[in-house]
Write a structure and sequence with these properties.
Layout lengths: L7 H6 L1 H7 L4 H6 L14 E7 L8 H6 L8 E7 L4 H8 L3 E6 L7 H15 L4 E5 L3 H6 L2 E3 L2 H7 L18 H13 L4 E6 L1 H13 L6 E6 L8 E2 L5 E3 L5 H22 L3 E6 L6 H10 L3 E2 L2 H5 L4 H9 L12 H17 L5 E6 L7 H21 L3 H4 L3 H12 L13 H8 L3 H7 L16 H18 L7 E2 H10 L4 H8 L8 E2 L8 H11 L10 H10 L5 E6 L1 H4 L5 H19 L5 E6 L9 E6 L4 E6 L2 E6 L9 H8 L1 H5 L26 H7 L3
Parallel strand pairs: 3-4, 3-6, 6-7, 7-16, 10-12, 10-15, 11-12
Antiparallel strand pairs: 1-2, 2-17, 4-5, 8-9, 13-14, 16-17, 18-19
Helix pairs in contact: 6-8, 6-27, 11-12, 15-21
């Protein structure tokens, strides 16, 4: 072989080299050429809105006060037609300038919302212009925007991320910000503003629609959050928006990686993989991941909140007392439930496994939620009263703790009586420093506690490890030894298994896995047990094979922790999310072109075949209710939590023991594989939607 090297220019111009170093992968090249199908309503030249009284909502009285301009909005049905009358034609095709902004964290599919809006706008009138506000709502406030071009659209079709115009978390929640936003819209002659975001962002959209109503600037919201907690039903329980976009992709991304960890655990048989998945309040992602992977144990926060400790209730009844702590899960009891699962698997020879923990699980632990609520109020009160930032004023943990001690001593009498008392202080100070630091971490821009910044898994697993040590000392946490293995190992060394087995194992001769006797908790007690049985002399040593067998019964609890969040929200979208978001973009333009404002674009029947998808406009105002934010009651869109009566949850609950696989049978892991944009080997929609549609 010649040692002569090609010149770098020649090497870089080689077609194979160009293909390899190109920033557009083969997968992405195929993605940007994919054309999502259109809902039937968009198969025609024009779309028409039809307000309907078919769907009703319970209106919070505060909505009537704060949002009078849009509080009477109705659900808008969207249909298509190739012919229309002159007034509608003029309105539909008039030249428009539409602004769009991403708000909050990225979610797969956002680019297709812009693509759908762009395509529909240009089809209606080629002179229509779409402007993208840069880096979230700051772009509106600061007047930073770009005109979206066809080249930019075509380079980002069906691709993940929000990189086309970036995103941000600023909230337009003051008169000053609103005035600046109005000025930006006037300078750009914006006719409509589209806000793509989660519950807080769509809440923002409602208030902007109210404030910009007299300016004749329409405001439309688009449901975006990988948490899946924007699900809209009317007062009768009719589902109008079954899922926010990005959820399916994020869940599939997490599931692929967690499925790989299931394979790793099953192969290496020595680690418990602790997998925390995003989901600040709702546990939809954890539920979907459970269905996708069959992880050994999946915690569902909503289920924990619904927990009742029957044992503690019975004990209270016997003493004729009321034990209110029996209602709702405590951290201590949660750690016991996890330990129970680990001990059961170990007894079946499986000292490994996979646990899925939702990011916001602590929100469902009553004692922790009370502490968080109180701290939220204290921090918000300090910021408001002193016009300072609590975390800047008290930079260290000790500074913050000293301020809380002052509250106990009554230094701030203007705060609600007993807001932070000695009991709270004692409970808080009993927590490890890293947990205290986490609970006092800076809140996000909406005043929400940032669960992703707290090492939830570390908190829970620290308690689990401590209790497992206790169970090990009591002889209750032990690894089961396969009977056949025990027999072969002793016979290999010329020993009689029936001579040693009855002394060592509590269930010798009964069961596939042998469990060491509970009072044998060390090699010393092992020797003593044999001496007491008369099968070993005082100075005699046990055979090495017996010692080796005993060593294998002693569990070493080893964990690997993983956080799944940013990887999933930055993933390229599944075909479901590609189709869903593109049609959301088409829906947005239909609402704008037909004069709507204060509406959220949605697709009805997402849980059914694509041919049955129906684009609609959902009024945002009726979705809002009063909720405590930054220590004040504020109108916000209510988050949708996991329904414990849903088919999806009931199925996961019914299969818990099967997936725990605490038996000699093999594990029941499922490998979901990677997100496949091509082929037909991926489910068409989220499993939770498929299951919940059955019998509906």
């Amino acid at each position: 072989m010649s040692n002569k090297q090609l010149g770098m220019e020649t090497l870089l111009s080689n077609p194979e080299v160009k293909k390899i170093i190109d920033n557009l992968s083969l997968e992405e090249a195929e993605r940007i050429t994919y054309v999502p199908p259109k809902c039937e309503a968009f198969a025609n030249k024009y779309s028409i809105l039809s307000p309907t009284d078919q769907y009703t909502f319970s209106l919070d009285p505060e909505v009537l006060k704060k949002l009078p301009r849009i509080s009477s909005n109705k659900v808008q049905l969207i249909s298509g037609n190739n012919e229309t009358d002159e007034p509608h034609l003029t309105a539909f095709t008039k030249e428009r300038r539409i602004g769009i902004v991403f708000s909050g964290g990225p979610a797969p599919g956002g680019h297709n919302v812009i693509a759908g809006l762009f395509d529909a706008a240009k089809a209606a009138n080629p002179r229509n212009k779409i402007f993208g506000f840069l880096q979230g709502p700051d772009g509106i406030i600061e007047g930073q925007a770009i005109e979206i071009s066809e080249r930019l659209i075509n380079a980002n079709r069906n691709k993940g991320g929000f990189s086309m115009i970036k995103t941000g978390r600023t909230k337009i929640d003051s008169k000053e910000k609103l005035a600046l936003s109005r000025e930006t819209c006037r300078k750009l002659n914006i006719d409509a503003l589209i806000i793509v975001g989660g519950d807080d962002s769509n809440t923002n959209a409602a208030f902007l629609a109210q404030e910009l109503f007299d300016d004749r600037i329409q405001v439309i919201g688009v449901p975006k959050t990988i948490d899946g907690d924007i699900q809209v039903k009317d007062s009768n329980g009719t589902m109008l928006c079954a899922m926010s976009f990005g959820f399916h992709t994020a869940a599939r991304s997490f599931a692929r990686n967690i499925g790989s960890l299931c394979v790793d655990g099953h192969s290496d048989v020595k680690y418990w993989h602790i997998c925390k998945v995003m989901g600040r309040t709702a546990s939809h992602l954890a539920l979907e991941v459970a269905l996708q992977t069959h992880a050994n144990l999946t915690l569902i926060g909503e289920d924990l909140a619904d927990y009742i400790d029957e044992k503690r209730l019975k004990q209270a009844e016997e003493t004729q007392e009321v034990d209110y702590s029996a209602y709702g899960m405590t951290l201590r009891h949660l750690s016991r439930l996890i330990c129970d699962a680990i001990v059961k698997r170990a007894a079946a020879g499986k000292n490994y496994g996979v646990i899925v923990i939702p990011e916001g699980v602590l929100e469902y632990i009553n004692e922790i939620q009370i502490i968080i609520t109180k701290l939220n109020t204290i921090i918000a009160d300090y910021n408001h009263t002193h016009d300072k930032d609590f975390h800047t004023t008290f930079p260290t943990l000790e500074d913050k703790l000293e301020y809380l001690r002052r509250l106990v001593r009554g230094v701030r009498p203007e705060l609600p009586a007993g807001l932070w008392n000695a009991h709270d202080d004692d409970l808080f100070n009993d927590m490890p420093d890293f947990f205290k630091q986490g609970l006092l971490t800076e809140r996000d821009s909406h005043g929400n506690f940032q669960f992703s910044q707290v090492e939830t898994d570390k908190i829970i697993m620290t308690m689990v490890k401590d209790y497992l040590d206790i169970l090990k000392e009591k002889g209750k946490y032990t690894i089961g030894i396969k009977n056949d293995y025990f027999q072969s190992m002793l016979e290999r060394d010329g020993l009689d298994p029936d001579f040693y087995g009855p002394v060592m194992f509590r269930n010798y001769g009964n069961g596939e896995f042998l469990l060491i006797k509970q009072d044998i908790i060390s090699k010393k007690t092992l020797v003593q047990t044999f001496i007491k049985s008369g099968k070993l002399e005082q100075e005699e040593e046990l055979p090495p094979a017996v010692i080796r067998i005993y060593d294998k019964t002693v569990p070493k609890f080893r964990t690997q922790t993983h956080f799944f969040g940013y990887d999933g929200r930055g993933s390229d979208p599944t075909r479901f999310d590609c189709d869903y978001t593109y049609n959301l973009g088409l829906t947005v333009f239909s609402l704008v072109a037909n004069g709507a404002t204060g509406q959220m674009a949605a697709i009805k029947n997402l849980d059914q075949d694509f041919s049955k998808w129906e684009p609609i406009g959902v009024p945002i105002a009726p979705l809002m209710h009063l909720e405590e934010r930054k220590g004040k009651m504020t109108l916000v869109i209510e988050k949708s939590l996991v329904n414990l009566e849903s088919n999806a949850f009931r199925i996961v609950k019914a299969l818990r023991e099967k997936w725990l696989a605490a038996s000699p049978s093999d594990d029941d892991f499922r490998s979901p594989g990677p997100i496949r944009f091509t082929g037909k080997s991926e489910e068409e929609r989220p499993m939770t939607l498929i299951l919940n549609a059955i019998g509906a």
